[in-house]
């Protein structure tokens, strides 16, 4: 688990001989890896100037970066409020898990981008600022820092960040990649669950975000599942998630419809057949429930014992 420490560290190090020394060691300054050079060369200029800025007080780079991306997404908040959700005084920083959980507690999706530069550019091109975790020091003595990437400037070959006390921090793309790779290129965006998923989002990542949101906000998770089902209608797990929410709300007719959609697009989804059987039991349609659970058992898998328990319920009745 990585921490964010002093937000003033970037201001102290950026552009100084210390940073140059850390990055260069006894060799040359960092360069863009060969496999990413075409990505950088083909990236047009982009700058999300409408991302609000909150200067990062010491140790508050986590709450400040969250305030920027959440306000950009439509949430009216400020770093001091968010500090209650993510700041750990004993650690003088914010853990990554807390950073991802805070938007969910406010009803938003935290979407982890793929850990690579093309994915970051895709998010920027779609209008989404990206929270990233950088290590401003050496791996043996890390100095973790959250920042918000808001653009890329080809003319100077610089990434554009909201970072530390600066609203528009320019950092060479090669240097940025070196600092970012030390967190294994960790980054995420904030998405409204009722909005159409941005084009940089993939079905699996969006589903993972919706499942995580369900733990703290069932209503907005439902909106995310609905958007997922609309965007990726052949992905059964969005229908399955909606079925589970309907079942939990004792809306069994609705739950049946969603489970039917799930097995309709993926007939080998044993869990959906099992849950459909459970729903049909609630609707007192035992013969149909028996047929559904038999399909689940025939498909099998690691949860076949659960399916057999469902079958026993039907027999007991």
Give a quick summary of the entry:
The protein contains 15 helices and nine strands. By secondary structure, it is an alpha+beta fold.
Features:
single chain; alpha+beta; 7-stranded antiparallel beta sheet; 15 helices; elongated; PA2778 family cysteine peptidase; TPR_rpt; TPR-like_helical_dom_sf; Peptidase_C39_single_dom
Give a quick account of the main beta sheet: strands, pairing sense, barrel closure.
7 strands, antiparallel
Rounded to the nearest angstrom, the distance between the terminal CA atoms is 50 Å
List the helices and strands in order.
HHHEHHEEHEHEEEEHEHHHHHHH
Number of helices: 15
Low-confidence stretches: 1-27
Secondary structure layout plus pairing:
Elements: H1 8-13, H2 17-24, H3 34-42, E1 46-47, H4 61-73, H5 79-86, E2 87-88, E3 93-94, H6 96-105, E4 109-112, H7 117-125, E5 130-135, E6 144-153, E7 158-163, E8 166-172, H8 173-181, E9 187-191, H9 203-214, H10 218-231, H11 236-248, H12 252-265, H13 270-282, H14 286-299, H15 304-316
Antiparallel strand pairs: 1-6, 2-3, 4-9, 5-6, 5-9, 6-7, 7-8
Domain Peptidase C39-like: 50-161
Pfam families: Peptidase_C39_2 (PF13529), TPR_16 (PF13432)
Keywords: TPR repeat
């Amino acid at each position: 688990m990585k921490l964010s420490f002093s937000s003033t560290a970037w201001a102290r190090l950026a552009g100084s001989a210390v940073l140059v020394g850390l990055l260069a060691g006894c060799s040359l300054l960092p360069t863009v890896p060969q496999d990413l050079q075409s990505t950088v060369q083909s990236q047009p200029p982009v700058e999300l100037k409408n991302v609000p800025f909150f200067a990062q007080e010491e140790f508050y780079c986590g709450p400040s970066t969250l305030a920027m991306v959440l306000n950009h997404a439509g949430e009216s908040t400020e770093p001091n409020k968010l500090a209650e959700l993510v700041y750990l005084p004993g650690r003088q920083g914010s853990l990554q898990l807390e950073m991802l959980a805070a938007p969910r507690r406010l009803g938003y999706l935290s979407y982890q981008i793929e850990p690579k530069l093309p994915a970051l550019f895709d998010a920027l091109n779609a209008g989404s600022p990206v929270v990233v975790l950088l290590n401003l020091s050496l791996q043996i003595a890390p100095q973790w820092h959250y920042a918000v990437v808001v653009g890329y400037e080809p003319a100077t070959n610089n990434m554009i960040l909201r970072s530390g006390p600066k609203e528009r921090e320019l950092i060479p793309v090669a240097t940025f990649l070196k600092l970012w790779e030390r967190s294994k290129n960790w980054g995420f965006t904030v998405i409204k669950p009722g909005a159409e998923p941005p084009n940089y989002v993939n079905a699996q990542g969006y589903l993972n975000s919706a499942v995580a949101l369900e733990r703290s906000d069932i209503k907005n998770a439902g909106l995310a599942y609905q958007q997922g089902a609309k965007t990726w209608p052949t992905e059964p797990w969005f229908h399955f998630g909606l079925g589970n929410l309907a079942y939990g709300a004792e809306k069994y007719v609705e739950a049946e419809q969603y489970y039917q959609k799930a097995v309709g697009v993926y007939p080998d989804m044993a869990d959906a057949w099992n849950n459909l059987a459970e729903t049909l039991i609630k609707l007192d349609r035992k013969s149909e429930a028996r047929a559904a659970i038999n399909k689940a058992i025939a498909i099998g898998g690691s949860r076949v014992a659960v399916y057999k328990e469902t079958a026993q319920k039907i027999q007991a009745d």
